[in-house]
Design a protein that fits this description.
By secondary structure, the protein is mainly alpha-helical. The chain has one domain. It is built from five helices and two strands, in the order βαααααβ. The chain has a two-stranded antiparallel ribbon with strand order 1-2. Helix 1 packs antiparallel against helix 3, helix 3 packs antiparallel against helix 4 and helix 4 packs antiparallel against helix 5. The radius of gyration is 17 Å and the shape is globular. The N and C termini lie close together (6 Å).
Length: 137
């Protein structure tokens, strides 16, 4: 058996930085995010900023054990909230010519993975020291 030695702290830091960077990107690349907003939603610019702030804030909260459960539930809610927009993108690839139709469909199950990952933070007993630590050679 080989131990991968991936600690909870390492995985948490990766996930938190992912969300902080994704949220910051809403402010650095605002026109892109506005362009992927489904037409049935109002206030495109405001929603881009709000979702960016939510991603940054929830990513930061993940870094504090005391707030990680709240952050996990918040990320789950956020991922569920944006899921219809991702479905819209997958169903209308002609509106998003810069992305491959396959990539647009691939985002849908990827959100499931991100939801499961966020759910891990909602479990107090998930204070496991190592994640998937044993691999057979």
């Amino acid at each position: 058996m080989v131990t991968l030695g991936i600690t909870r702290a390492t995985v948490t830091n990766v996930y938190a930085v992912f969300w902080i960077a994704a949220g910051a990107n809403h402010f650095f690349n605002t026109p892109f995010y506005v362009s992927i907003m489904p037409p049935y939603l109002p206030w495109h610019l405001a929603l881009v900023y709000i979702s960016g702030l939510a991603e940054i804030g929830l990513g930061v909260l993940l870094l504090f054990e005391r707030w990680s459960v709240l952050a996990g539930w918040g990320l789950i809610a956020l991922l569920i909230a944006v899921f219809p927009a991702n479905i819209h993108m997958a169903l209308h690839p002609e509106l998003y010519t810069y992305a491959s139709p396959f990539g647009l469909w691939l985002r849908l199950p990827l959100q499931g993975v991100l939801i499961v990952w966020a759910y891990w933070y909602t479990r107090r007993e998930s204070s496991v020291d190592n994640i998937g630590s044993e691999v057979s050679r």
